[in-house]
Structures are given as C-alpha cells and as structure tokens.
C-alpha cells in the first residue's frame, strides 16, 4: 500500500489518481480539525475544498524531507482558516448587526459542555490541543503547521489542558 | 508522543472522547458555488438590529409612534409648502 508521500510524489509527476487518493484519505481529518476549531460545518467544508484547490497550485513546494503530506495540508488549511476568520472579524466589526446567529444544535448536555469548553479556549491553545489529541501529530509537525517553535507547542498544550480542566470543572460545578 | 500527556488525565481524556464529528456528505460530492454561498448568506438568520429597542416597553411604543409622527410631519410640511 502506497503512503501519502508516495501518492504526493505521483501527483507531482502528473498522476491525477495521486490527488484522488490524497483527497479520499485526508479530507476527513482535515474537516474534523476545522470543524472542531470553528464549529461551523459550511465554513469547514469550504476550507477543506479550498485547501485541496490550493494544493493543486503549490504541489511542487512540497518536500518530503521537511515533513509529511498531512502536515503540509494541515498547514495550508490552518492558514486559510485563520485568514478567513480574521477577515470575518473585520467585517463583523464594521457591520455588527449582520452577525449570523448560531444554528448549530447540541444533542446532549455532556457534548455541549466539551464542545463549548474547546471553543472557549484561546485560539492558540485550541489548535494545539486538537492537533495533539484528535490527530496524534508529533511535536515537530504541529510546530510546522502552526509556525511556532518546538518548545511553544508543549507549553501551549499544558496551558490548554489546564484551561480545559478548569472550564469543565466550573461547568460541572454549575450544573 | 505528546498524546501520552493525556494518560495521566483520564477524566479529561474521557470528556474529549465524547466529542464526535459527523462528516457531511456534501464534502464528498461538490463545493458550493459563490452564488449559492451568497444566497445562503442572505438566507442565514441574522441579529435583529432593532432588538434593543423592542425589548423595552418604552422603546417598543416609540417604535410605533415615530413612523406616525414622521408621517404627520411630512404631511404637514407638504401642506405648508403648497
């Protein structure tokens, strides 16, 4: 079975099957990361599609010596997401009355608690905890995706875990 | 691996495991066009800009009276200008 990196090399050499393989393997983890970060399904779908669209233009920039395809795609997706969110913040500052109300519905109290707790984390901590826990990525790849030093990954993870524990305990206490 | 840090925090681990994500079928099929996204944006629920006024009884009354007063004012103005 070919690895992601081998499919990427094939795609760089013009094999369209390589792209299809990468898409079918990586759209799910990408979507999960983006959705957990934003809690917006349409935005996450759009960013996944934009990420693969962008990959088509910059596929030659991928170097397997520097990292994995997964980290490369997560990096593209993360940057696209941050840009979109920043742009949206500016528009919302200009037109605050046009802010859409949340249409996402939680099904259970417990799920609502953990989802809200993750959303309430500071953005820098949120990305780290999602990449570590749900995607099990090594420290080097997370540092590459978020463009931060290696040591910062660990410190942000510890801060995120501490904040999350405090938030969840507070909510348990309130309940 | 960094995930090993969670081994000591079983309670936190259990909480995080409860967050499941459903993958939408739409992701596999197609991307929405700009036009569709624009229509969706127009159709999405928005905050009511008059909500702060409508929530108080004084604000609600003034919201009903202001158009009437404005209509009377414009009518009088038109009569005087003739």
Tell me about this structure:
The complex is a heterodimer of chains A (175) and B (82). With 175 residues, chain A is mainly alpha-helical. Chain A is 75% helix and 0% strand. In chain A, α4 packs parallel to α7. Chain B is mainly α and 82 residues long. Chain B folds into 2 domains: 42 residues, no CATH class; 29 residues. In chain B, 63% of the residues lie in helices and 0% in strands. Chain B is built from 5 helices and no strands. The termini of chain B are far apart. Chains A and B meet through α2, α3, α5 and α8 of A and α1 and α2 of B.
Topology diagram in text:
The complex is a heterodimer of chains A (175) and B (82).
Chain A: H1 4-12, H2 16-38, H3 41-58, H4 69-94, H5 109-120, H6 123-133, H7 139-146, H8 150-174
Helix pairs in contact in A: 1-2, 2-3, 3-4, 4-7, 5-8, 6-8, 7-8
Chain B: H1 10-17, H2 26-29, H3 34-43, H4 51-55, H5 57-81
**Quick check: average pLDDT of chain A?**
86
Q: Using the alpha-carbon principal axes, give the shape of chain B.
A: elongated
Strand content of chain B: under 5%
Residue stretches of chain A low in confidence (pLDDT < 50, at least 5 long) are: none
The portion of residues forming beta strands of chain A comes to: under 5%
Fraction in helix of chain A: over 70%
What distinguishing features does this structure have?
heterodimer; A: 175 residues; mainly alpha; 8 helices; B: 82 residues; elongated
Summary?
Chain A contains 8 helices and no strands.
